[in-house]
Amino acid sequence: MSKEQLKFNSKTIHGGQFPDKAYGAVMPPIYQTSTYAQSTPGGHKGYEYSRSANPTRSALENSLASIENGTYGLAFGSGLAAIDAVIKLLSPGDEVISTNDLYGGSYRIFKRIFENYGIVFHFVGMQDASAIAQYINKNTKLIWVETPTNPMMNIIDIKAVAALAQKNQVLLAVDNTFATPYLQLPLDLGADIVMHSATKYLGGHSDVVVGALVVKDKELADRLYFIQNASGAVCGPMDSFLVLRGIKTLHIRMQRHCENGRAVAEFLAKHPKIEKVYWPGFEDHPNHHIAKSQMKDFGGMISFVPKNGSYKEAIAIVERLQLFTLAESLGGVESLAGHPASMTHASIPAEEREKSGVVDALIRLSVGIEDHEDLIADLNQAIQ
Ligand SMILES: *Cc1c(COP(=O)(O)O)cnc(C)c1O
After folding, report:
1. Which molecular function terms from Gene Ontology are attached (predicted)?
2. For 344-353, how does the pLDDT look when each residue is reduced to its tens digit (9 = 90+)?
3. Pairing between β-strand 193-197 and β-strand 211-215 as defined by DSSP bridges
4. pLDDT tens for residues 79-88?
């Protein structure tokens, strides 16, 4: 049977995977090598230098392509290295329309690196996809979407944006880090490129920094592969192995992240000391209907604002947490809490931040896969 016809849970384990050719190892060996013996110049077995390709990385890249319903996967040394490769498809004068409420590091590479190379970025609220149209002109080459957004949990209608992108012959890239392919498949919804910080849910154990791209189109894959090899920000074999191992349990981890996310979101929403909870699973979330149509469930990322909360108050709450670890990052098995204004989003100017709702008192949770009763008890003592 073709492995590409498998359902998602089976694909996480088997998609693009084959026993190793040398000894039949079921998990791909960690090919910790830079180079490969050749019998005659150019006479090699498919691998010649590990920046260009490495068998452990190939196994991960095949898995990535399979779980995202793509054709080609590319693994990078970090999520930002993957973003870097996408923007290098562009030339000076080209324009990009990006979600306004996005990962701070994505904003930073766009503004502080690529604007210097003459690429123009428009940061746009995309909760209403039609708002994008007015920014499209003949120079527009790429639309960059993050959904759910970080940290405001806005939901963007991927299908609607894809229709707009296709009509105008503009590439659409979706940062699928928060949702993962367990919840949402951007390529099936019409995106051209899926990007991941595999550091987060795909790796799932807070032990690597890895990035990924997945595409369907061969020509686009070739251009990205050229950039990956020419710029060189590849993922090493040990990290490839770890992410591949993480992906094999992605579906069961995500299921629990979603269950716990719901329990924690509902607890916070009922708490008298909480002003506002951002989680796309609530029926009164402005784009709940879109989340429901494009996602299988609502994930384990939640942001909230305490009542009459201040910068100081938010910091006091995250400092009192005991089971939730105060840390950057997300998507690991353990629950983490963060204060975007001083941590992940500190590189975004305060006015820009507040415009998109990232107020000083906002706290972001990555709900892990512990027992939710323990997580709720910890939050309760920290908020009281
Ligand atoms: C972490 C993250 C990135 C950047 O990925 P790194 O692996 O840290 O380089 C990009 N987008 C989102 C949504 C992220 O959470």
Report:
1. cystathionine gamma-lyase activity; cystathionine gamma-synthase activity; pyridoxal phosphate binding
2. 888 778 887 8
3. antiparallel
4. 999 999 999 9
